[in-house]
Amino acid sequence: MQYHEIGKTGMKVSSLSFGASSLGGVFHDVKEKEGIEAVFTAVESGMNFIDVSPYYGHYKAETVLGKALKDIPRDRYYLSTKVGRYGKDGVNTWDYSAKRAVESVYESMERLNIDFIDLINVHDIEFADLNQVVNETLPALVELREKGVVGHVGITDLQLENLKWVIDHSPSGTVESILNFCHYCLCDDKLADFLDYFESKGIGVINASPLSMGLLSERGVPAWHPAPEPLVDACRKAMEYCKAKNYPIEKLAMQFSVSNPRIATTLFSTANPLNVKKNVSFIEEPIDWALVHEVQEIIGEQQRVSWANS
């Protein structure tokens, strides 16, 4: 396991880290005991960064994770959670007000059985008024940082342009890290185009969803996946190509996503301890860069053909 610092935070984290969204049954129903065991397995395997959110499973993921954390020494991990996105009774809600952000931090600490959050993030800022994030949400979190309630402050979003806008309109040092997903994987490496920018601001980079929410898997995408059909077809063809070479696309995808030392860590989520062990074993093996290029070419060519015929 390799370790990299998140920006200038002093947090040196494992290149592969544990995303706890699955503990909330986000992707499919989970067995709580098995999910807790997955957390133990991740920490025992050298992962020292855990990311969660009150939104995942509408508080369930934090609650289940909190049960696991009770039995893990606090110096074995860094904990990241979020504010802004919530939900209740199956209904998603959003509230980026300063008041709700502060309340949320203390509620999360109670669910997680901890008294300090290493990294607090404004969650999925694309759903917020970005001016409110700059002028209200982030200042509230910075105040908690100054009080020692949280260690560091970050922002998360799918849209890299939104992350840049908020950083550009915030006082220097406000945002210490960004979390972006589905943009540093075999089928999309747009995040690489922004690394110089983030580094110039001293901001750490956290990557997530190395399998692009199922695109890069033998299981395939869930029905709700937003990817256009040509991309789904292209990734399916790439998966079949890897399968024929007896090199699972999941393995190649995991290896690729942790291969860039400029990205502090890549989050993956599972509630299955066997999957934790499997993914750790994947990244401990050398990557086949020739196969990476072949797969990327297959994906690009298949998309071009699909668009031309549409």
Automatic annotation (TrEMBL):
Protein name: NADP-dependent oxidoreductase domain-containing protein
NADP-dependent oxidoreductase domain residues: 16-298
Entry-linked Pfam families: Aldo_ket_red (PF00248)
SUPFAM superfamilies in UniProt: NAD(P)-linked oxidoreductase
One GO molecular-function entry: L-galactose dehydrogenase activity
Cellular-component GO terms for this entry: cytosol
